[in-house]
Amino acid sequence: MNPSDTFRMAIYKMATKVILVHNHPSGSIAVSEEDKSVTDYLYKAGKFLKIDVIDHLVISEKKFHSFEDSGLMDKFRTSGTWEIVDKTKADLTEMRTQIIADKATKKTAIEIAKKMLIKGTPAELVKEYTGLTLRDINKILKEIG
Question: Which among 99, 103, 106, 116 has a CA at the least distance from the CA of 136?
Answer without folding.
Answer: 106
